[in-house]
Amino acid sequence: MKKPVYKELVAASSRPMVLSILSGGETYGYEILKQVQLLSGGELEWSDGMLYPVLHRLERDGLIKGRWQLTDAGRRRKYYRLTSRGKRQLSTDRESWRAVYGALQMSWGGSHV
Amino acid sequence: MFEFENEVRRWRSALDRRSSLSPRELDELEDHLRARVDLELELDAALAPTEAFAIARRDLGEPKALSREFARAGRPRWKPLLAGALALYSASLLLPVLRLELLPASWGFEAWVPRGYELLADIGLLPLNLPMLLMLPLIWRKRRLKGTWLAAILGIIGASALGLGVAAVIDIGSDALSSLRPGYWAWSASFVCASTALWLRRRGWASARPKKTLAQGRHGRV
């Protein structure tokens, strides 16, 4: 059986993951969690309770912005969207992760292994 | 019989008691719990609501763990601001405040420049200092205290003192600057900072008030 991605890597990738999902448009916590599962084929194990502190930290850092709305069912729900600062951060994160991935690919494919 | 709404209320009040989450954070977690229960029921029609609720509750995590995760995400902005306000207020007690031409010239003093702690004992100034002195014990004891009035009083005192100081500097110039010593500015600024901190804290504690209903179907399943 395949081992799940270890938690330090899950935590490190949480910011670019959330920012990437929000670059597709405004959405709320539960939908983000479902997207993470879908995109990773279930290999990134995000606990339900872990997501919200991440969202609040990103909001505090000005990378995303939340707003409360009433759903048709009359429930309060917080929707998040990417800010311009968040877009810049996503672009930086993308470059960093590509650099890491590229270096690992090279080392696995080359004579280092 | 399983009463979903009662169970959600019970879960929320237990989470509120056993964690340090704000009402807004609780609102968001409650919405998540409800959405998760809906999904579990959709995925498995044979599942009983009580089981769906148990799965959703378990996956959200224990109150202590949730509290820890939120705390790890960072301290709210109002806390450092409040610490700054208290530091400024403490400093103002030790610094010279303002020159007072109170003593008779025959005593040989041209001017008396008291430090903040000397004025703190003045009964006439106590009403001005009281909101600041009461603030910390009040918010410490009553975690749910919104503190709107306290923030307003602190803000009015601080802004008025700062305004008077600035007006005096504009009108009189260097004389005012030599009369209003660092303690005065620190004292005034501490009230403004404390007021701002309480406003920020209030925003965090107040339960969310959404502005409008979503257009049907705009965000998919609701």
In summary, what is this structure?
The complex is a heterodimer of chains A (113) and B (222). By secondary structure, chain A is α+β, with helices and mostly antiparallel strands.
Stated plainly, the CATH topology of chain A is called Arc Repressor Mutant, subunit A
Query: In terms of structural class, how would the helical and strand content of chain B be classed?
Result: mainly alpha
Radius of gyration of chain B: 26 Å
**Biggest sheet overview of chain B:** none
Helix content of chain B: 55-70%
3D shape of chain B? rod-shaped
β-strand number of chain B: 0
Helix content of chain A: 55-70%
Spatial order of the strands in the main sheet of chain A?
1-3-2
Supply the helix-strand structural class of chain A. alpha+beta
> What is the string of SSEs of chain A from the N terminus onward?
HHEHHEEH
Structure write-up:
The complex is a heterodimer of chains A (113) and B (222). Chain A is of the alpha+beta class and 113 residues long. Chain A has helices spanning 7-12, 14-22, 29-40, 48-60, 84-109, and strands at residues 27-28, 64-70, 76-82. Helix content of chain A is 58%, strand content 14%. In chain A, a hairpin with a 5-residue loop joins strand 2 (64-70) and strand 3 (76-82). In chain A, helix 2 (14-22) crosses helix 5. Chain B has 222 residues and is mainly α. Chain B folds into 2 domains: 4-72; 78-205. Chain B has 10 helices and no strands. In chain B, helix 1 packs across helix 2 and helix 5 (78-94) runs antiparallel to helix 10. Chain B starts with a helix and ends in a 17-residue tail after the last helix.
